[in-house]
Design a protein that fits this description.
single chain; two-stranded parallel sheet; 8 helices; about 210 residues
């Protein structure tokens, strides 16, 4: 990613040597972080940089907004308008209560990986998540499951393995046969080539 390149001096120098006339930064709000912003401000001198983001700020606590890095706004469109215009697909969000509890001291902020471990390993909770996702797949929907971070992609890999279990078959109305659920785990730990393969498979309807 562009953000990662800004933290890699060798790759940044390589990028500079190629002399791009235009740099497009996706997820531009990530460039507002303390480390990324320092590299970005040094790189952007004398260059044309276009930022794109679905978020207007880095986080709520530090109040760093996109206008601090990109003062000239070109286009600002609400997601609802893009869905209505046919540029984005509508997304149905589904949440459920599993009954699992996290035991930790009174605190603020995100939970640590250690504190989240019981949720990642909960067989009952993971099975419930897969059952709900499978029900939507049976209806012909494609499902993205938001997993618990950390553990080097451990949680999405567990869910993908459960969903792809040979006993977890669904009825294919078009072909009039039972078939397996095709599930894959996607995370930042994968190589670019593997991500491209999975995205191509998703685009072809194979996942």
């Amino acid at each position: 990613s562009f953000r990662a390149i800004l933290r890699d001096l060798a790759r940044l120098q390589e990028l500079e040597a190629q002399g791009f006339a235009l740099t497009i930064a996706d997820d531009a709000h990530e460039l507002l972080g303390p480390m990324s912003s320092k590299g970005f401000n040094a790189y952007r001198v004398g260059k044309l940089v276009l930022g794109m983001s679905a978020s207007t700020s880095f986080n709520d606590r530090e109040r760093r907004t996109l206008k601090m890095a990109f003062p000239h706004e070109i286009c600002n469109v609400e997601p609802r308008a893009l869905v209505d215009g046919g540029y984005l697909s509508g997304v149905q969000l589904f949440a459920f209560g599993s009954g699992e509890e996290l035991r930790s001291r009174a605190r603020t902020g995100d939970f640590s990986e250690k504190e989240l471990q019981p949720l990642r390993l909960s067989e009952r909770r993971n099975k419930l998540m897969v059952d709900i996702a499978t029900a939507f797949v049976t209806q012909g929907d494609r499902v993205l499951v938001w997993c618990i971070p950390g553990d080097k992609c451990g949680h999405p890999e567990r869910l993908a393995e459960l969903a792809s279990d040979p006993q977890n078959k669904i009825w294919d109305e078009k072909k009039r046969v039972y078939r397996l659920v095709r599930a894959e785990a996607i995370s930042s730990y994968l190589s670019d080539a593997e991500c491209d393969r999975l995205l191509d498979a998703m685009g072809a309807g194979e996942i």
